[in-house]
Amino acid sequence: MKLNIGDQINYVVSYLEMVVPPFFGWPSEPSGNILILEANNPPVRYFFSLYEAVGADYEWTDKFRCSIKEVNDFLLDPNVKLFTFLKNGWSAGFFVLDKRKRNICDLAYFGLVPETIGHGYGEYLLKFAIKQSWAAEDINLLTVNTNTLDHPNALPLYKKMGFKVIKNEKETRILTRPKIITNN
Fold first, then answer.
1. Who contacts 31 (Cβ-Cβ below 8 Å, separation ≥6)?
2. Which terminus of the chain is more solvent-facing, meaning fewer CB atoms within 10 Å of its CB: N or C?
3. Per-residue b/e over 143-158, b at no fewer than 16 CB within 10 Å?
4. What is the C-alpha to C-alpha distance for residues 35 and 126, in angstroms, rounded to an integer?
5. Residue 5: what are its φ and ψ, rounded to 5°?
6. Strand, coil or helix: what is 182?
7. How far apart are CA 164 and CA 111, in angstroms?
8. How far is residue 93's CA from residue 6's CA, in Å, rounded to a whole number?
9. How far apart are CA 46 and CA 108, in angstroms?
10. What is the pLDDT of residue 183?
């Protein structure tokens, strides 16, 4: 079924937690020219370029409705860290760790650009993000959420890495892009 811009869609948000550090070690770097860098004082436009590149197909629009000041304050908070996944010198994905709540780290954003999906980089990057999260000694809870508009492998991958679903919520939204819905 094809849905158009302006159509309303129902979806489910899954909230997940990890209450103990994972048993796996730091991931082995996949073959190729791969690098993960923490951004220092990233400008809003840089965040939005990654957010759009990763989330365009999945209705990532919430941050576009925030004021530039609000997004800038989020990015420049010393307890928020943005990491860029580079492949062959270009931005292939990113993740954001939000440690603004005491003893909690939220994997606020995580994803790959379409060109890198399906090559095993998602598992590598998620393992790296999880290990980076737990590297802070004051963390005793790692959280993340995903929804049924995200890539279909997102929820299974989070579960595979050790996250547990603690709550599901039904939501609706108005589409900002056309979307093809397949019934599996």
1. none
2. C
3. bbbbbbbbbeebbebb
4. 14
5. -55, 135
6. coil
7. 19
8. 28
9. 16
10. 58
Amino acid at 150: D
Give the chain's length. Answer: 184
Rounded CA-CA distance 53/3 in Å is: 21
pLDDT at 58: 94
Distance CA 181, CA 184 (A): 9
Which residues fall within 8 angstroms of residue 56, CB to CB, at 6 or more apart? Answer: 177
- Taking the C-alpha atoms of residue 126 and residue 109, their distance in angstroms, rounded to an integer, is 11
Residue 97: the pLDDT is 98
Distance from CA of residue 10 to its chain's centroid? Answer: 21
Which amino acid, 34?
I
Per run of 10 residues, the mean pLDDT along the chain (length 184 residues) is 87 97 87 91 97 95 95 97 96 97 97 94 96 91 97 96 98 87 63
Helix (H, G, I), strand (E, B) or coil at 61: coil
Tell me the sheet residues that pair with 84.
Answer: 37, 94
Chain position carrying tokens 């869609």? 9
**How far, in Å, CA of 127 to CA of 2, rounded?**
34
pTM of the model: 0.93
Token pair for 93 = 């994905």
Q: What is the pLDDT of residue 30?
A: 80
